[in-house]
Structure formats: C-alpha cells, structure tokens
Specification:
318 residues, mainly beta, four-stranded antiparallel β-sheet, 2 helices, globular
Length: 318
C-alpha cells in the first residue's frame, strides 16, 4: 500500500475515533438528564388522591411526605408511590390546617409543617400525631405572617420563611426562638415573596426568591454568599433564567435543583450555581402545561416533583 493510502487510513481512523468519543460524550450528557419513572395521584380527596400538592420531603427510609394543600392534610407514600397514611383536615385546632405549604423532617423523624393561613408551624410524629406548634399572626419574634417553606439543618435547627415579614426565623426543635435575619437593611435587597428553603451540604441556606426570579444563598446566620438567576420566560429562556422559582432541593452530590414553575421545567445547577441542564415536566404523558412546585431528592438520587395543577407526584431517575 502506498503512503497516500496509509495516510488516508490514518485520517479515517482518527475521524472514527473522534466521532466515537464525541458520540460517547453526547450519550453521557443525554443520560444525565433524568427520565420519568413513575407518576401517581389524581384530583380528589380519597387516600392517594391530591388537590394542588405543594411542598414535598423524604425521610431516611425514602418515604415521601406530601403537603396535600387544598385537602388541608399531609399524605405519606413509599418511594414507589404506594399510599401509607394521611392526617389533617381544614381548621385551626391542633392537627388541623388552613392551606399548609412547607414540610421538613428532623433527625428524630418528627414532621414539621408550615400551616400557612393559620400563621404557625406544627410538629407531628412520623405517624401524624400532633406534638406542638409555634406562631400566631404578627411581627414580633416567633410570630409569623404566612409562613411558606421550611428547612431543618443537621443540628435540628428549624428555618422558617416568614414570607410577609420578609425574613427568616430560626427555632430549635422545641420551637424556642433563636434568631431572625433577612431584612433589606442587613442584606442589601428585599426578599420578595421567597417560597422555599433548603440546607446545602456545606450548611449554607438556599432560598428561592420567587418574585425576584433568583436563587439566593446565605450563611446560616444570614450573610449573603451568592445570588444567581434573572427573569426569563418561555421555551427560549436560558438555563440561568427563571419565571417564579418555587421548590428547591439539594442532590446527593450537592447539586441544586430548582422548580422553575412558569417555565414548566426543572433546572439543575452545580453547588456553585453554574447551570448544568434542565428538563420539562410537562408533555411526557400529554401535551398540556403543568406546574412543578415542590421538589426533593431521595437517597438514591431519585428526584420527586409535585405537579401542582396536575394533582400528582412525578418521580425521575438520573
């Protein structure tokens, strides 16, 4: 074979190798976007049915707790969506709710729920037995105006979004008031309808600043660490653009998942806020527009999303 033939063969081999590497990398990137494994729930008030589910959390056994907002109750499922139990009804007595919103679980498997229109936080056992509560309408310490998202850190400190007081309040697990932060005077801008809160692996506090269309990261004492995001809406919106972000969750590797509600998608960022990828939560089973609201990541990396207007839970696997 002449030199030209050998050279041509080498070029062809190099092209094939490059193509294989490229296609392999594209395959890896494509596989990094979660695919839906399961969807459960439908509109109704029977066990396993939902009416406008809000926030969602997971316990150490990967059981799923869902705020069934317009049924004024909490429902508990296993990781496959099988109904386990439920508790709550509409009212203002112990164990009753008036449009609950946020939910979190501490190291003792106690369940905390932000009872939004009752302006309080309630604490329950894992089986739904009422234990204690804190809060009443007002502006003083331990008073609340429409508490939204809540989160619990590794020391069992409770962080509460006191939405219409534009601040975060902190309590211990027995509801003793610890501190508050988030005023415009201390952080340099106004938290505008923040909705959900989660604790990062490094102990920082991640907040979905809804009407500012941003994600804000603070130290546990309220010092601003980082903000990212800007307003952008529609199919052409960029990865760093949000239209009223709601739920926020931290993955097993520290990545940040955001329910980008009015863009009908989930946006995934690394722990430093750099955009990685996103996926639409509508159009998988039909072509309608749904509204992802709450989000949580299980111990195996599964991503659970509440679809607020489709009255269901979606489970995705990376």
């Amino acid at each position: 074979m002449n030199r030209i033939g050998l050279k041509s063969q080498k070029v062809i081999i190099q092209i094939l190798i490059a193509a294989a590497i490229l296609s392999g990398s594209l395959f890896v990137n494509a596989q990094s976007v979660p695919v839906m494994l399961k969807q459960w729930g439908e509109f109704g008030d029977k066990p396993g049915q939902l009416k406008f589910p809000a926030m969602i959390t997971v316990d150490n056994s990967d059981n799923i707790y869902v705020v069934d907002q317009h049924n004024h109750r909490i429902q508990k499922f296993d990781s496959q969506g099988n109904f386990i139990l439920m508790w709550g009804s509409q009212g203002n007595e112990e164990g009753e709710f008036n449009y609950p919103y946020g939910i979190a679980i501490n190291s003792k498997s106690e369940v905390f729920v932000s009872d939004m229109n009752n302006h309080r936080i309630q604490k329950f056992s894992a089986e739904g037995k009422f234990i204690n509560s804190v809060g009443s309408y007002g502006t003083e310490d331990a008073q609340l105006k429409y508490p939204y998202g809540i989160a619990i850190d590794e020391s069992d400190v409770l962080y509460v979004i006191d939405a219409f007081n534009y601040r975060i309040q902190k309590f211990n697990s027995d509801f003793k008031f610890l501190s508050k932060w988030g005023s415009e005077e201390t952080i340099g801008f106004r938290l505008y309808m923040p909705h959900e809160i989660v604790i990062a692996q490094d102990g920082n506090v991640i907040l979905s600043d809804r009407q500012n269309h941003r994600i804000s990261i603070f130290s546990k004492d309220g010092e601003l660490v980082k903000r990212f995001g800007e307003f952008g809406e529609g199919k052409e919106s960029a990865g760093q653009q949000f239209s009223e972000p709601h739920g926020v969750a931290v993955g097993i590797n520290g990545g940040i998942f955001v329910a980008n509600r009015y863009n009908f998608r989930i946006n995934k960022f690394d722990k430093d806020g750099e955009y990685q990828y996103g996926w639409e939560t509508s159009g998988v089973f039909d072509d309608s527009k749904h509204f992802p609201l709450g989000i949580v990541v299980g111990s195996d990396g599964s991503v659970y999303v509440t679809d607020h207007y489709n009255h269901c839970i979606q489970k995705y696997k990376q």
